[in-house]
Amino acid sequence: MTDGADAGAGGGEVCVVFAAGEYYDVRDNPANAVEVPRGAFVVAADGGLDHTRALGVEPDVVVGDFDSLEGARPAAGGRTIALPPLKDDPDLLSALKIGWSHGCRTFHIYGALGGRIDHTISSIQLTALIAHHGGIGFLHGDGTIVTAICDGGLAWPAFDARAGRMVSVFSHSDVSRGVDEPGLKYRMMDGTLHGDTVQGVSNEFLPGTASAVSVREGTLIVTYPAEAPAPQVTRYHGFSGDLGPLDTAVSPLLAG
């Protein structure tokens, strides 16, 4: 675990979320190291508490129904939010809501890629939810980062990109218009991507070349190598709303 020098590129206070899923060995890829920027707000989601303990990280809040926690259950108190197991919101969404209510708009999320495919899809969906309200979430996986951008863009400075490390862009919305990908190997400008096509898969950074991915209208899911510099985030207009209130009730869908 490393302590980053600053909070991040997305604006607002940073939240680091530890989920209960897969974590990856830095011996396989140094970019797999968990980074907690100085001053970040840290939330452990259920079994993510096992990982904060292993890394020596003290979370500001622990939330979950604790069905995936292997170690001792956290002590009750203001820093522990216990949820019912039969709820509508997954533990990760609850953690994001807590971070959002704290004022965070940039989220670095560990332990939310790999393992169960339904959990991975859910995590990617949540990055789109964050983007729809003007925030940004970065899912850290095995040498790869996944994020979403809505009506805005990501810009990377030039760096020594390795050949064969892919950048892929997918439309999360039905249609994404005005898609630009300057500086990448396959250079799309003012393109249109659809939610049921995969035209943007398997692009590449070029060594020593600044690059960007942006969308004028729509939501993109972007995957890129974890060793790339943190992108600068641009938004083309203001956003409103939030992630909603924390749901601590048993699901009403069970009553039918």
Automatic annotation (TrEMBL):
Q: Which GO terms describe its molecular function?
A: thiamine diphosphokinase activity
**Does Transmembrane count among this protein's keywords?**
no
Report keywords, A-Z: ATP-binding, Kinase, Nucleotide-binding, Transferase
Q: Membrane-spanning residues where? A: none
Cite the Thiamin pyrophosphokinase catalytic domain residue spans from the record: 41-128
* Domain Thiamin pyrophosphokinase thiamin-binding: start-end pairs: 163-219
Give its E.C. classification number.
Answer: 2.7.6.2
Q: Does the keyword ATP-binding apply?
A: yes
**What Gene3D superfamilies does UniProt report for this protein, alphabetically?**
Thiamin pyrophosphokinase, catalytic domain (3.40.50.10240)
The record's section on PANTHER family has: THIAMINE PYROPHOSPHOKINASE
Q: What is this protein called?
A: Thiamine diphosphokinase
Organism (species): Bifidobacterium santillanense
